[in-house]
Amino acid sequence: MVHILTPPAVDDVGLIDDVIAERQTGVNAAFFNGIAVEWRERVQSYLDGRGSPAVVERWPAAEARKSTLIGLYTHPAEGSAQATVLNNLRSHELVICPACGEAGRPNTLDHYLPKRLYPQFAIVAHNLFPMCDACQKAKLEETGDAQNPRFFIHPYFDRFSAPKLVALRIEPPFSTPLFELTANPDLHDHERAIVAIHVEKLEVTTRFASFFSGAHRRVLRLAGEIREGGQDLVAMFGYFRGNACAISPNSWDFIVYDAVLSNPELMNFLQNGELPPLL
Length: 279
Ligand SMILES: [Zn+2]
Prior knowledge:
By secondary structure, this protein is mainly alpha-helical. The chain has twelve helices and four strands, in the order αααααββαββαααααα. Zinc ion binds next to α6.
């Protein structure tokens, strides 16, 4: 699931100054000089508002020139101020998607506030973070609505009262269980609300259904092997959970082992039940 990221070490207001300075001899010099003061203020308000679409306003003057502003992101001149920032953001070493936890290097940068709706933030580093293709396809240009003014966790700004954001319930029959993914009940109400809508909008439960089934089969197989070897199931699974937690309390392996160990009925089944034959 979600991984909280260290915010980029970029002075985004200073970046705007640099971009404007680089455009003093270009065909768009008058446009950029005309928006310079307000652009800086808008970027500062993004940072102050922690990127929330509930408080960060759209800007009609920027939207009217969105192709110019988005062009800074899509076609940055080599060596330009924003090219350096974008290259640094793309040279990350993440091995999981920060939005959903899918294993593998996230290939794209996502605009937390979409660049077509908020072109003034197209190159703002704090509005950009790595994301997997599946998350980006689900997120598209959504930001929020009247009922839920903010749909998505902001990996640079959101911080939570508990490290684990979701909880997995594994319901009987344990040979072919049902899985229920919810926000961690230990979180505060407002935290659970943003986690729940984030999971829903990124279609996490559907996308990871086959992962849950596969992980459960692995748990059954391991339980059988541990029983055959005469080892302590609680200790062994605790060891697996500890290893997974070292990666992150939001890694899917941790969430699965935590779901197993915190489910007395399932643990009893794994220790004493008739385990199904596995392929
Ligand atoms: Zn993802």
